Batch of 2 targets.
Target 1
Amino acid sequence: MILLTSLVVWLTCLFTATSAQQPTDCIKPQPTSQAFFVMGCGKPITVDRLDPIVSPGRPSQHLHTVMGGSAFDFDLDYNKTQTSNRTTCSVSKDLSNYWVPTVYFHDKKNHTFTAVEQVGGINVYYQERMDWTDYCAGQELLAFPKGFKMIAGDTTRRAFNSSRVEDGAVEFICLLTNNEPGLPPFSGFPNRTCDGGLQIRIRFPSCWDGVGLGTFSSSSSSSPNSNSNSNSTGTASAYNNTHVTYPSRLDTGTCPPTHRYRIPALLYEMTWAVDAFNHLRTPGDQPFVFSNGDKTGYGYHADFFNGWDVDLLQKAIRDPSCGNETGGRIERCGSFREFLQSNEVQNQIEGLEQKVEGEWKGVLEGGELPGGVRVGE
Ligand SMILES: *[C@@H]1O[C@H](CO)[C@@H](O)[C@H](O)[C@H]1NC(C)=O
Ligand SMILES: *[C@@H]1O[C@H](CO)[C@@H](O)[C@H](O)[C@H]1NC(C)=O
Ligand SMILES: *[C@@H]1O[C@H](CO)[C@@H](O)[C@H](O)[C@H]1NC(C)=O
Ligand SMILES: *[C@@H]1O[C@H](CO)[C@@H](O)[C@H](O)[C@H]1NC(C)=O
Ligand SMILES: *[C@@H]1O[C@H](CO)[C@@H](O)[C@H](O)[C@H]1NC(C)=O
Ligand SMILES: *[C@@H]1O[C@H](CO)[C@@H](O)[C@H](O)[C@H]1NC(C)=O
Ligand SMILES: *[C@@H]1O[C@H](CO)[C@@H](O)[C@H](O)[C@H]1NC(C)=O
Ligand SMILES: *[C@@H]1O[C@H](CO)[C@@H](O)[C@H](O)[C@H]1NC(C)=O
């Protein structure tokens, strides 16, 4: 009898799960939704003016720091990712690429830019964010399909609006040295020194429409005068990211009915050695910029191009040893055991040769960033 009642409640739940209100009549246990594993990548596979999502087939407007598989190029598709013979990340079956703009120190006294050293590679958190509506609807977290790609953030954003969920996706953690208390995260470049370095985090959308892979349409309809070689503004205009969106509370909460499928909630975490420039700073001045010319920090963004063995990723998502009790430690994940690469191996992986000409390291003179990018007002 109890069983039967449960079944009825469970079925009711199945049919009402799309309305995002009450969990009271759903007898499925509230999921912990804290499971995650951390994919570390020891170092970039390249630093180059390339972006096969936003600017396929040509140099990108600005420079990127790129982690992951060695097939990264002007153009990329799923099959090409699988031709990578190496990756700088910790699972050899993950031939994805993960990329972000590069951080520079802007010396306003002599109009030079110096690339900031990136320390420790990247941590990509694969967070399994399901809520009761998904469980009650009998859904599970889905591995990214073949051909899937997406971006987070907006290279053109220069302000912070606290009522926009997506504006909270970028966080700057000003790391201090040993005994100083931690500071709350900043939403743009912090206007102070960070003696332990600057950690930048960005969260990706985790609600998917179940169909789209992220499409680039070469016949840009947004501007009749747009020429495919133009790199001045709105570089993302021809790339359509509407296949994904954020859940109601950024990385928790409910997905809208238009995007009801859950994919792993990715979070990129990278640290930059900004403290190496402390002696060159002018008090009260924020001297760091991204390679896209953004000095506010609000224009930070990140790209993901899926190169996973999709079945393996799905298996890991279902594998409890890859989830909540491991504190994110990927070494404990049974599904990945035979494919793990130590940090030492990752750091010995041969990088790619730069494909777009132009200096990016050292002190850049002439008041321009790579690609002729200037710092915006
Ligand atoms: C990718 O590779 C698969 C299997 O080798 C093949 O069936 C498919 O046609 C390829 N796709 C493209 C777009 O080349
Ligand atoms: C991958 O291929 C490149 C170029 O052919 C070669 O230099 C490199 O050693 C190969 N790496 C691995 C891990 O096989
Ligand atoms: C400009 O300043 C940088 C430090 O920010 C220094 O390394 C560089 O040598 C200076 N260059 C010139 C031309 O003065
Ligand atoms: C902030 O975002 C909200 C919600 O999208 C919008 O209604 C509001 O106009 C925005 N405020 C500013 C100053 O842009
Ligand atoms: C982006 O793609 C979606 C879904 O395919 C479509 O509805 C929308 O109109 C597209 N947006 C633009 C700006 O092309
Ligand atoms: C940084 O802080 C200083 C002193 O607290 C202030 O004068 C300056 O306007 C601030 N700059 C920015 C960009 O917020
Ligand atoms: C991990 O998940 C299992 C079930 O999936 C649950 O029983 C356990 O309490 C969870 N542990 C933690 C630390 O959340
Ligand atoms: C991008 O713009 C810069 C200067 O604004 C120019 O030097 C560079 O050639 C442009 N790149 C492309 C691909 O058009």
Note: Residues 1-30 form one domain.
Target 2
Amino acid sequence: MGFKPEIIEVTDEGARYVERGHLFYLDKWISMPGAPHVDSWRLNSGIHNGPECMVCHKVVCDHCNKDFRTEVCELVCGVCLTAGSHKMDCPNR
Ligand SMILES: [Zn+2]
Ligand SMILES: [Zn+2]
Ligand SMILES: [Zn+2]
């Protein structure tokens, strides 16, 4: 059993585990109010399955890369923490 980090932020369609981390698509069938569930089957290939980031669209196998959830998403701005590679001290550039 691998370590599963807690979700820290939820939007209508996605959730992330760390600040500036990937925003993963939610599983709409399983998610309930107050109990978001990341869709781990965006990648579905043989024994490999895993979630997809709705910002950078990276998909990684849950089994082969367990650190994916806590990785920083390069397309999330470090200043406003939303999608778009703004930076340079943002206010959405
Ligand atoms: Zn991402
Ligand atoms: Zn794999
Ligand atoms: Zn920004």
Note: The chain has one domain: 1-93.
